[in-house]
Amino acid sequence: MTDRAMTGSGSMMRLLLKHAVLLGCTYVMLYPLIWMISRSFMPEGQIFASPSLIPAEPTLENFVLGWRSTQGQSFSVFFLNSFIIAGLAVVGNLVACTITAYAFARMEFRGMTLMFAVLIVSLILPLQVLILPQYLVFNQIGWVDTFLPLTVPKFFAVDGFFVYLMTIFIRGLPKELDQAAIVDGCGRWQVLWYVIVPLCKPALATVAIFTFIWTWGDFFGQLVYLNSAEKLTVAVGLNRFLDTTGSSFYGQLLAMSTLSVVPVLIIFMLFQRLIVEGLATTGMKL
Amino acid sequence: MIEATRTMPPEGGEALPMPRRRAAWFSLVESPWFFMAPWLVGILAFMALPIVWSFVISFTNYSFSPNTQFVGLSNYQTMLFNDPRFIQALRVTGIYIFFGVPLQVAFSLLVAIALNKRFAGADFYRAALFVPSLLGASVAVAVLWSQVFGNPGIVNSALAVFGIKGANWLNDPRYAIYTLIALRVWEFGSSMVIFLAALRQIPKELLEAAAIDGATSWVRFRFVVLPLLAPVVVFNLIMQMISASQTFTQAYVISGGTGAPANSLLFYTLYLYQKGFSNFQMGYASAMAWFLLVVIGCATFLILKSGRRWVNND
């Protein structure tokens, strides 16, 4: 506001200065990431020797060699596994959280208040408290070292946060629409499918995006449940790569690190507005 | 509604069986409990049962062996009085939260205020500065961080330009934890976004009125903006504190799962992981998990309580 009120070269200078400062700060903040990308394209010997961010002789060698990995499985397998797990988690959360949220938002039944309280409590339960006994349960039924412990619970709406988010969203929709549909002879499932779901698209997109980002970035759960090389995800695979070869081949390690964040960065670029609004309006933590 | 259809007089002879058969499964499938069923099963099987179970085994020496014994409070006793590594884990996590969380929240507030005004390019800066928090908890960034503070590393190369010889940050128990605090502050994006949204809610008239009354920008910030933001500050502090107390990935990846150097990166969750999944001392690890749960619960309660005191005088 004050910028606009000022006139002439004074305001111009101020604006330039402001952008210079901001650009400088942003550059410093992002420097590690830029460095990581730039080093991925450099031959091993130059990684710490070269002062420049632009590779003098850019090479794809790090990507080619790193992709093969050294654990008997290439990153193709890790990426495929990560996509399968994240994909199933997204589907599970979309279906289960919507159904549960619809009941919370639109139905009256005994114990509803109590259940909503349980939902709220489940939001703050730390994963670390649950994972030990969950592991014991899954170990008992032979699910350890499969994708099941990482995906099946999503089909039971265990991500209370998304149930909460969807509930609030559905409560905000006009009730008259459901009532009109019921008068027309729709059952609850039809109301859900034909009235609620189409109106919930923004909320559903938020759920899908955050589920994907969180599942992709999850390390603790995947580390605990996945062991065999052919079942590893990108996160766990990258960590094992670090343990086995990483300390001697920085270039490959940085190249694979770069690739491992590409899906999340693409999603961020595509859905930036939804992500930022989702965070701001719900206060969830990335 | 369903009762009504059933008691309605049939209009035509052939139509009669249809609604009745429909009513039977209809009332089941349409009942609220049918909608609630998946969540109920999930909460019971994946939350309630594990929670109760972990409470029970925290009083045993369970470690996947058949001869499990009830050991009373001994896990808790060992933990609190006889396990220097546990105390170290508390210390590391405590230092991390004590410095990392307030610094991160303060920094994100500062940046949010700088980016609050509308100007060409504001969206670009917001998006760019958000990226670190998007990737912050990933293995990739943990890997990167050991290059940032490695020796040779980015920070030391930068220091070398000024003729300063940097320390071996990650291998020195005095400094290692501070590199992770730096990482926490670096992930300020999501707090920033929440502050930006809150700043947008502040009525312009208030600030204009204050400006007309001659308030300097600092006075406006201190006496108009900050009191209005207080609940959001508290919210960010709690959320960040909870997530900081569960820090795992960075510590695990950077220390190779050991908490090295000299246990200076032995975060609480990392120690819990070692106890549960490396030593298979499930009883002990469960006791640790319950301790964490109680501490997080109490801390949240206290912050909310103390927060209310100064949130209310706006």
From TrEMBL, chain A:
Primary localization: membrane
PROSITE patterns (UniProt xref): ABC_TM1 (PS50928)
Key words of the record: Cell membrane, Membrane, Transmembrane, Transmembrane helix, Transport
Subcellular location: Cell membrane
Transport among keywords: yes
Source taxonomy: Bacteria, Pseudomonadati, Pseudomonadota, Alphaproteobacteria, Hyphomicrobiales
Membrane topology designation: Multi-pass membrane protein
Record InterPro entries: MetI-like (IPR000515), MetI-like_sf (IPR035906)
Domain ABC transmembrane type-1: 79-271
Transmembrane segments: 20-38, 78-105, 112-132, 152-170, 191-216, 249-271
Name this polypeptide is given: Sugar ABC transporter permease
GO annotation terms (biological process): transmembrane transport
Keyword Manganese in annotation: no
One GO term describing the cellular component: plasma membrane
Signal peptide feature range: none
Sequence similarity: Belongs to the binding-protein-dependent transport system permease family.
